[in-house]
Write the structure tokens for this entry.
Amino acid sequence: TLLAPRVVLARHTGGMTNVPDAAPRWDLSPFFSGLDDRSLVASIEEVGAEVERLRALCDEHDVRAGERRAATPADGEVAGRVLTAVNDLLERVRLAGAFLYARVSTDARDAEAARLHAQLQAATAGLSPLVKRIEAWAARLGADALADLDPVAADHHFWLSRGQRLASRQMSEAEEGLAAELGLTGGRAWARLHGDLTATLTATVDLPDEGSTEMPVTEARGLAAHPDGAVRRAAFDGEVEAWRRVEMPLALALSSHRGEMLVLNRRRGWADALEPALATNNVDRATLDALNAAVVDSLPAFARYHRAKARALGHGDRGLPWWDLLAPMGTPRRFAWPEAVAAVEDAFGTYSPALVDLVRRAVAESWVDADPRPGKAGGAYCMPVRDGESRVLMSFDGSFNSVQTLAHELGHAYHNTQLGLRPWLLRQTPMALAETASIFCETVMVESGLGAAGDDAGARLAILDGDLAGSAQVVVDIHSRFLFETALSTERGRGPLGPERMTELMAEAQTAAYRDGLDPDARHPYMWAVKGHYYTAFYNWPYTFGLLFGLGLFAEFRRDPERFRGGYDDLLGATGIDDAAPLAARFGIDIRDQAFWASSLAVITDRIAEAEALLS
């Protein structure tokens, strides 16, 4: 909703054509004509049949855990057939799944889309235990040996090696199959309950000029960046009251989901709730410890920024109230949709023509759904569909933050173009590395915006404050979520938690992360309910990793642009075939060294220093 005055920017002259005037909706017709498309129904049915054929193939050749033995040439041939079958199946699942998820996430009330999506999930429930069987088989025969025997296995050497490592954390074949089936009415169902409740939840906001107004809670949250402080406060109060109405079912959902996860972790032999997230992200604990240590050291600088902003907004020395964390400062510019697209294209042009071409393709082929509307999921995402083709969801509100979001998600889309050259199993990029291109592109966007602002203090402050507000979310707020989730996992191991205790844990985590930068009497008590991320354990810290890794890569780009361009696309294409540390080493970066993360954070703290000066 464009509630603030819009300042029209100079028209881009780089050749962008046919950009819609209003925020667009995406085009899904290249995939299926609709929910009644016979090929969609057939695809869902065929997925189930292919899962059964894959199971039969694995049964026929005893692809499962067992006593160690030497691999034979016949095993190499089986490995090639099995890996090819999995990739073919994933391609079919991705196409149908992406289409249905796109329908569900843009209209939570679409019952038929939800039914078909659930049907597809049921059809693929058997795939996860089959993949675990293949991993256990790789451990039984040795990934190196299989790679030596077959070219397809050789291409998948990292995947097989990673599976070999993960195989030691598996239950029995029967138990893994049972867990996958029960997950449909357990963990997945609890996550779906959260998604459905939050997508349809409305808030009553007492707007200063309009009175009591009912709106989607996502729209109320969007008012956090409104220029009028009274509107921000009213939206916050309305939002909190909305979460209070559903605190009981959401607490039950999160507590139950976490309880299931802890039981499965224990049965699989994981040391704690964090260990699986590290393994699936291809990141070791030494790296995360170095990252977190640097983050903790940076928290006083973020608190200074928040206190300076609080003083500028008239709150004195108590720190910022939650509703003013995203309050716009300076003279923020407003963007019409064509101007946003043009600004992103201009920024991407400072890096490479390939990024510019990506923007043009996304617009020409209607990849982006940016139109805010009831029933649409909040937040933003980029979803690969086939080869290098993606779909992007966001809710455009005309702010520079929305422009950054567009750049961020199109960064994911560019990443997908590089991954699209590989089989589907080798496109499975862990969260920590999935943010590499998106953060890099967002950083390019901020630098371009600051360059365009020049010496205009108001414009610079607006961009710096917006960027720092986003950085604080990724560094400070995500650290609070990490602390909350750590405490949640510990306490849930002793028994269920209700909404009151979750609210207490959230307050403690926010105090530890925001320190004296946040007004202790004006925290957000329901951030545990807001985020669906908690339904994937320790989902959030990879965003911090991605932000700081992206800033580090951007620094490398500035030091030696040509060298960086020569290796960047290769890095993106390799995020599914190597661990994080070796990938970083390609650019001479040691991510186990706290100094690297501190140097990335220094980019942010330098911006904090400039923002403090402009706020004083």
About this structure: Residues 457-492 form the longest helix (36 residues).
